[in-house]
Amino acid sequence: MALPRITSPHAKGNNRTQQVMLQVLLAAVPGILAVTWLFGIGTLFNLLWASLCALGFEAAILALRKRPVAFFLKDYSVLVTAVLLALALPPYAPWWLTVVATGFAVILGKQLYGGLGQNPFNPAMLGYVVVLVSFPVEMTSWPAPHAVGMLEGLQQILGIANLPDGWAQATALDALKVNKSLTIDELWTQNPAFGRFGGAGSEAVNLAFLAGGLYLLHKRLFTWHAPVGMLAALALMSLLFWNGSGSDSHGSPLFHLLTGATMLGAFFIVTDPVSGATSNLGRLIFGIGVGLLVYVIRAWGGYPDAVAFAVLLMNLAAPTIDYYTRPRTYGHRKPTRGFKLGE
Fold first, then answer.
1. HEC per residue, 273-317
2. pTM attached to this predicted model
3. Taking the CB of residue 164, how many other CB atoms lie within 10 A of it?
4. Choice between 76 and 159, residue whose per-residue pLDDT is larger
């Protein structure tokens, strides 16, 4: 007799995944509001279009696989992927760019491996990296804060008209990476991309995602190990290689914690239970690895922000981390001193 296959966890019934995803979407609201306040309504356009595209791609692939479409769409996991991807894309990104990113995220990042619970890579970060490498000009066109109106932004998204020259500016991470002559103090006073501690406005955005992440921690939807590991490793690396206000400085710990996608990555991306490590020690190691890679790529790599690349690289390492951090089986003693892991 064929038994039905029901994925874990079972403790709260089949709606457990739906409840978790709804909580994640709720926790992202403060960050969404902060990004919308900073860059305008383009973020909401991104969210709406990415969500529609993701639902469409998910439904089409499920139908091709002859799986129950409504059942799997109701777990809202594809909406979480769409929201994380839309927040990572530049506001007012061309409509076709969002289609390509969500297509890769849903089809190649998730459904190709069998759907939710079987994907080895974070789908949103996979879609983001694909368009970042393929369309670098569009992916680096971030608008200046509070600089774009709704009508102009809509025209940019639809490709009807391009925004005037000067509507976009380099982010704080971009400006710091290419700086070779100005001291940090001079850079801070002369470049409008910098705010009080990090990028202009990005401090508020990161604090908003931090608030959402703390809410998820309070709800115990994930443990503290991965986010704390990432933030601690990033802060430690930036402290070790911080030389004050010199022109070759890579930025202070506070700058790196409150700039770019740091808090979004720490609480909404590295905490992915599918593509990350599974044990508490494994999650801690996974988060530390992400934090180290984020700093290395930011300081010496070819991209100013590195959360997506760092997460995907650590996704590759997650099975090995799980192998060497397997918890003790219930009812068995801890290994003796002469025991070798894996025997």
1. CCCCCCCHHHHHHHHHHHHHHHHHHHHHCCCCCCHHHHHHHHHHH
2. 0.85
3. 7
4. 76
